[in-house]
Design goal:
two-stranded antiparallel sheet; 4-stranded mixed β-sheet; single chain; 5 helices; about 190 residues
């Protein structure tokens, strides 16, 4: 009871603090151009006539405009369960990433390998490492300098979605994410 009163007092005190320099964060609405169709298949509902919207696998999708943001290339690829094999969609995304990285040679990349919840911690760490390595090898094969790409495996420790058994939810955690770093000042 005493601890609860102390906790409530502390929370009330924190809630009363109004920092003069607090800046309000405004976020733009984000819309997902994909919807789940019959059988759990992803269906694209975006407008391909809007600049920046392209269908995965389209010839234009492999091209990245000079100066475009890395996010336009797509930073995440997904894998089948317990595999590190790149799908056609993954190769298409990685081709765009490689094009961006070869145009922006001052940037380095960290490829994070992830896994879904089922399996032991050790198995998922190894699987995440294989996924990150698979992405790295593809980017290097597409002309990105090997020394600019590092890999790390998080296994199942950093899920994109929290789930235990829903298949569509687990799929989002079977991924590799490429994170680019801006050049250091003075480097």
């Amino acid at each position: 009871m005493r601890a609860t009163l102390i906790l409530i007092s502390a929370l009330a005190g924190l809630a009363g603090c109004n920092m003069a320099n607090d800046t309000q964060i405004v976020q733009a609405p984000v819309t997902d151009p994909y919807v789940t169709g019959p059988g759990g298949v992803a269906v694209y509902r975006g407008d391909v006539n809007v600049p920046g919207n392209r269908l995965p696998g389209s010839p234009e999708a492999a091209q990245v405009e000079p100066g475009a943001d890395f996010a336009a290339a797509g930073n995440t690829v997904y894998f089948p369960e317990a595999e590190a094999t790149l799908s056609d969609d993954a190769r298409s995304t990685l081709t765009r990433q490689a094009a961006w990285l070869t145009q922006n040679t001052a940037y380095s990349a960290l490829v994070e390998g992830h896994a879904d919840e089922p399996g032991t911690r050790e198995f998922n760490l190894a699987l995440g490492a294989r996924r990150a390595t698979s992405v790295r090898e593809y980017l290097v094969a597409k002309g990105v300098e090997a020394g600019r790409i590092r890999t790390v495996s998080y296994g199942k420790e950093r899920p994109a979605a929290i789930c235990s058994s829903e298949a569509s939810c687990l799929e989002r955690n079977r991924r590799a994410v490429t994170v680019v770093s801006a050049p250091q000042a003075g480097a």
